From TrEMBL:
It comes from Noccaea caerulescens (Alpine penny-cress). This is DUF2828 domain-containing protein. Residues 10-355 form the DUF2828 domain. Coiled coil: none annotated. It comes from the Eukaryota. InterPro entries: DUF2828, DUF7788, UCP015417_vWA, vWFA_dom_sf. Residues 357-539 form the DUF7788 domain.
Length: 559
């Protein structure tokens, strides 16, 4: 590969693999820092502006910081607390607990019958003591936060002062946001609000974790309100100047622009539920906030959902992945948002060019527990709904004796429950899968153009492990091709897209094996990628086709 292609691969293919991008971006910063910094404007056209504060944050806090934070959050959620000295404390301690366990046959206090029980304190004294403890804890927590903020600020300033590569990237990120925000203010003033970008949405809020850790808001504010352009800052000391422009960034830039963007967080923060425009809520925000909307604005939000069901309005689904949608079926809204987002996603993919004549093999075996199971069910169901007749609404079981199953159910919930309970085995026989497809085609007297073009196999296994055959794929494929030729379908032998849903470093299928391609990850954009690739599946050609777009030509290698 040449260096420009490698830079394109780092940007990615719309695979919703943000962690992969962050890993590659941090590598690029370490090895080619100017290339990363000088391509920010082009990179922003592929993804989110929020990627860049995140990169700065991870450079300062360490690449593993998000994994560590998630682990700590899970511990707190599950009631596992840090030892003394860490943040937070156990809900009960020897000194503060007001209750003791009383099992069968146990009395109150120290011994049976409550002997030697200490006299209870008066209610007023208990309340006063509890209030003093609460105040002391609040004061300590406030002091801890202030010290942590000072510590993060010092770390960011030290890194900025002593690391020229980091300083260059920091300046380019703040330049990018400042340029967008200045331009957006001009659009707001001129009334061209449809041209306003999402820079105000993704710009760190003042005193947010991003701001405290990177000091990015101060850098952006100084570029939006530079001293040389505002005479009122002449002679003002640096610290006061920084304070004033930060405040102006919030009041004069972020607040009006975010209000114009009609971001739900603006209305939620102001508790202005009656004005919240639900039709402007992005898909990820809708997934996150739907239960809050129901709690605070049930009547209006339910009417919006009813209008979406009847087609009077639309509900966003673009940034939510299929498995994320079905994961919300048990939400507090009864799965209404999930049902609507699924319908919107299917409709949008059909408009792009549906997966005509494709079918899925969904592995729902015990080893798939967790995310792989959700992805296998979701993508299998998605492929079945995008396929054309006679394959629409059908999938093939992952079994030594595969069967063609019609998906049962009237709604998304019942369909996913059905897919989870279909028969499964420890592996599957791909020869029998092809035999099954051929038998349906022959019995239905299908034309060549109606034959299955692609078989998507969703599993957590390697390709060679998933097959019961001992002959190897090349031998199997020759036998399959012979059978199809004998029945008049020699030119339309289906291809296998083997979709490995587990994180694996091995290479189960070589890139040049005929009729088969390996895919990893789980994004609907990857499915669309295969639609445009006529004939033979060649992983290298697919990759080259993806990065051949005009937007990739803007990326340049600097160092």
């Amino acid at each position: 590969y040449n260096r420009e292609d490698n830079l394109s691969y780092i940007r990615g293919t719309g695979k919703s693999d943000k962690e992969g991008f962050y890993t590659a971006a941090l590598w690029l910063h370490g090895c080619h820092p100017k290339t990363l910094a000088c391509n920010l404007d082009s990179l922003s056209n592929f993804g989110y502006l929020k990627d860049f504060p995140e990169i700065l944050y991870r450079i300062l806090k360490g690449f593993e910081i998000r994994r560590i934070q998630k682990s700590e959050w899970m511990q707190r959620k599950n009631g596992v607390h840090k030892p003394s000295g860490g943040r937070g404390r156990a809900p009960f301690s020897v000194e503060t607990s007001r209750f003791s366990y009383r099992g069968r046959g146990m009395g109150r206090g120290k011994g049976r019958g409550g002997r030697n029980k200490k006299p209870a304190a008066t209610r007023e004294l208990r309340i006063a003591n509890a209030e003093r403890r609460n105040q002391a804890e609040k004061a300590k927590a406030s002091l801890d936060r202030k010290m942590e903020k000072i510590s993060m600020g010092k770390k960011a300033f030290t890194r900025y002062s002593h690391d020229p590569d980091y300083r260059f990237l920091h300046e380019r990120v703040s330049d990018l946001f400042a340029n967008y925000l200045r331009r957006d203010l001009e659009f707001l003033t001129s009334g061209e609000t449809n041209k306003i970008s999402l820079a105000a949405k993704w710009c760190p809020s003042l005193d947010s974790s991003f701001d405290k850790a990177t000091l990015l808001c101060e850098s952006i504010a100084k570029k939006v309100f530079p001293r040389e352009s505002f005479p009122e800052y002449d002679g003002v000391e640096e610290a006061h100047y920084a304070y004033r422009v930060r405040d102006r960034l919030r009041k004069e830039v972020l607040v009006p622009l975010r209000k114009n963007l009609q971001l739900p967080e603006v209305y939620m923060g102001a508790r202005d539920w009656g004005s919240l425009p639900y039709n402007r809520v992005a898909s990820v925000a809708m997934k996150s906030y739907k239960e809050i909307f129901l709690n605070h604005d049930a009547e209006r939000f339910q009417k919006y959902l009813d209008d979406a069901k009847s087609g009077k309005t639309k509900l966003a689904a673009g940034a939510v992945l299929p498995h994320e949608i079905i994961g919300e079926l048990d939400g507090g809204d009864g799965g209404q948002v999930a049902e609507l987002q699924w319908k919107r996603m299917v409709d949008d993919l059909k408009k792009k060019g549906s997966l005509t004549n494709c079918i899925a093999i969904s592995d729902v075996s015990g080893s798939m527990a967790g995310t792989p199971m959700e992805v296998s069910v979701a993508l299998g169901l998605l492929v079945s709904e995008l396929s054309e007749e006679p394959w629409r609404g059908k999938l093939i079981t992952f079994s030594e004796n595969p069967e063609l199953q019609s998906v049962e159910g009237d709604d998304l919930r019942s369909k996913t429950e059905f897919v989870r309970t279909i028969r499964w085995g420890m592996n599957t026989d791909f020869q029998k899968v092809f035999d099954l497809i051929l038998r349906v085609a022959v019995e239905g007297r299908l034309k060549a153009e109606e034959m299955i073009k692609r078989v998507f196999a969703f599993s957590d296994m390697e390709f060679d492990q998933a097959s019961v055959s001992s002959h190897g794929w090349e031998t199997d494929y020759q036998a399959i091709a012979r059978k199809y030729r004998e029945k008049g379908y020699g030119d339309v032998v289906p291809e296998i897209v083997f979709w490995n849903l587990r994180d694996s470093r091995s290479t189960p299928v070589l890139g040049n094996q005929k009729g088969v391609a390996l895919v990893s990850g789980f994004s609907k954009n990857l499915i669309k990628m295969f639609l445009d690739n006529d004939g033979e599946i060649d992983p290298m050609k697919i990759m080259e086709a993806v990065i051949s777009g005009a937007e990739y030509s803007k990326l340049v290698v600097i160092d």
